[in-house]
Amino acid sequence: MASRAEQREQTRRTLVRESRQLFATKGYAAVGLSEIVRAAGVTKGALYHHFESKAELFGAVLAEVQQEVADTVAATADAQDDPWDRFTTGCQAFLTASTDPATQRIMLIDGPAVLGWNEWRAMDEAGSARHLADALADLIEAGLIARQPVAPLAHLLSGAMNEAALWLATSPGDLDATRAALAQMLDALRAASEGAHPLTQRS
């Protein structure tokens, strides 16, 4: 028999799972608490025991989605041996993962609107953006990118990829063309470092 702590955790997981499905399908604004507790098979009291508001529940869902995207990016990138290939593969994996309709709705469309830009950015930086900064720092140390402050470059690239994913979510964009444009942008970043460091000299 499950302990009370296990039952509480199970209830929390169920609330997150069911609300995630509803938020992804209908959007945050169109989902009411009554619909969430009905789908989860719990009372409103049980929901409020775990989350103070619908917004807080959405925050838990968003954190789960962002972590899954970050895990996907890291696993895809880590499968590559070459550091530059790890970087570019990871960036492309982020763009691809972010174009999943359910992910787009929660992470890119409703996320900033519900939580506010500052909180959304903080959550983003704790996930994929942190991995991006780490990858850039490694490439700079290896001489594959010209030496420069990491934070501005990481924010520029993260913003570009988030904007591309959002554009694909809200307009009839072409994923293949967007991936090609991202590849060219990343290649230009490497090309700009040619001659800036001995390790970047090619025979």
CATH class of the largest domain: Mainly Alpha
Number of helical runs?
10
Shape: elongated
- Name given to the CATH architecture of the largest domain: Orthogonal Bundle
Classify the helix fraction into a percent range: over 70%
> What is the averaged pLDDT score?
88
Q: How many separate domains?
A: 2
Largest sheet: none
Gyration radius (Cα, Å) is 20 Å
Give me the strand/helix succession.
HHHHHHHHHH
Q: Segments where pLDDT lies below 50 for 5+ residues? A: 197-203
The oligomeric state of the chains shown is: single chain
Q: What is the fold-level CATH name, i.e. the topology of the largest domain?
A: Tetracycline Repressor, domain 2
Structural class: mainly alpha
Organism: Actinomadura rudentiformis
GO molecular function, one term: DNA-binding transcription factor activity
Protein name: TetR/AcrR family transcriptional regulator
Domain HTH tetR-type: 9-69
Walk me through this protein's architecture:
The structure is a single chain. With 203 residues, the chain is an all-alpha fold. It folds into 2 domains: 51 residues, Homeodomain-like (Arc Repressor Mutant, subunit A, Orthogonal Bundle), CATH 1.10.10; 132 residues, Tetracycline Repressor, domain 2 (Orthogonal Bundle), CATH 1.10.357.10. It contains 10 helices and no strands. Helix 5 packs parallel to helix 9. The C terminus is likely disordered. GO terms for molecular function: DNA-binding transcription factor activity; transcription cis-regulatory region binding.
